[in-house]
């Protein structure tokens, strides 16, 4: 269900790609080079593997400018309806990779490749102060989502089933969660709280979720105990969009999205695509960037970091 990665493993992954990649990313994302110029050879390499995103096609209803779109594609904004793929087009599958860098060890994730379903959950750390396992509910949600995943998957129904089973087990704590699935050529999602996702197409963010919060640092969450948490699955945000072969879906807990901006994520994905990263390579690199950013004075937010990357592909025949 979930694997725990160490920074040494990420470094091994990077060493198999190109030893210049970590420094090129630091230069491109302005991590570590704020007070000194970027060495010229490194700047040239970074520019060569970070081409600008493809220009938007004015005739493409799904072309958007980078940024947060609050759970909708541009086609939905323009036409006020959910966009569906043509039924004659072949179904898409996923190639995936994940990376988990624990700090408090309250995150969890799952991938059910056969049904094209995947998700992450983030246990609410405040429960640790009550002397309970703050990650137990998150782990229960993801374990039960994996157990309940069938074919096809409807994310909201799967989140509901996983919550019911986890609550019935009286697992401690509370958790945010996001579940996505690819069915045919449609990407569908359901999420509660600030576990989030972004969909990138041609190196550009075309859809990004918007966190649910009661107030600052108080995200919506699910729990077994309504006395401490009265949020319910019916409050989850849901949506869908037409998917395309080549889309990259990045899913993460707030340890990722609190530390990496949409523009930075676009740069990492463009570099990864240019260098032929696998989904696992890309998950490792994104997690590594978030980890470095989390250590920055004042603006960084140290936390557990979970990243799941899914490439939408034509299944092998």
From TrEMBL:
Pfam family, one: SpoIIE
Catalytic activity: O-phospho-L-threonyl-[protein] + H2O = L-threonyl-[protein] + phosphate; O-phospho-L-seryl-[protein] + H2O = L-seryl-[protein] + phosphate
Protein keywords: Hydrolase, Magnesium, Manganese, Metal-binding, Protein phosphatase
Main EC class the enzyme belongs to: hydrolase
Entry superkingdom: Eukaryota
Protein's UniProt keywords contain Magnesium: yes
Cofactor: Mg(2+); Mn(2+)
A molecular function GO annotation: protein serine/threonine phosphatase activity
Domain PPM-type phosphatase: 91-312
SMART domains with a match to the protein in the record: PP2C_SIG, PP2Cc
Documented EC number(s): 3.1.3.16
Family: Belongs to the PP2C family.
Protein name in the entry: Protein phosphatase
């Amino acid at each position: 269900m979930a694997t725990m990665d160490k920074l040494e493993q990420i470094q091994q992954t990077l060493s198999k790609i190109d030893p210049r990649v970590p420094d090129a990313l630091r230069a491109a994302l302005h991590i570590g080079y704020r007070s000194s110029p970027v060495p010229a050879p490194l700047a040239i390499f970074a520019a060569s593997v970070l081409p600008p995103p493809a220009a938007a096609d004015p005739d493409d209803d799904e072309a958007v400018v980078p940024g947060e779109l609050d759970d909708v594609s541009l086609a939905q904004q323009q036409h006020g309806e959910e966009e569906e793929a043509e039924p004659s087009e072949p179904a898409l599958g996923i190639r995936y990779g994940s990376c988990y860098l624990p700090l408090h060890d309250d995150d969890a994730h799952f991938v059910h490749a056969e049904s094209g379903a995947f998700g992450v959950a983030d246990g609410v750390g405040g429960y640790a102060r009550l002397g309970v396992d703050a990650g137990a509910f998150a782990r229960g949600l993801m374990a039960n989502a994996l157990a309940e995943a069938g074919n096809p998957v409807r994310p909201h129904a799967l989140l509901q089933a996983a919550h019911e089973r986890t609550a019935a087990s009286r697992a401690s704590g509370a958790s945010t969660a996001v579940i996505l699935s690819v069915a045919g050529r449609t990407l569908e999602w359901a999420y509660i709280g600030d576990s989030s996702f972004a969909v990138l197409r041609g190196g550009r963010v075309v859809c990004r979720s918007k966190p649910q919060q009661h107030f600052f640092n108080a995200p919506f969450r699910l729990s077994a105990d309504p006395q401490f948490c009265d949020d319910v699955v019916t409050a989850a945000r849901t949506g869908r969009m037409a998917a395309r072969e080549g889309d990259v879906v990045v899913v993460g807990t707030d340890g990722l999205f609190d530390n990496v901006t949409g523009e930075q994520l676009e740069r990492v994905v463009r570099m990864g695509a240019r260098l032929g990263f696998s989904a696992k390579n890309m998950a490792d690199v994104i997690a590594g960037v978030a980890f470095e950013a989390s250590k920055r004075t004042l603006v960084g937010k140290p936390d557990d970091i979970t990243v799941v990357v899914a490439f939408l592909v034509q299944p092998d025949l």
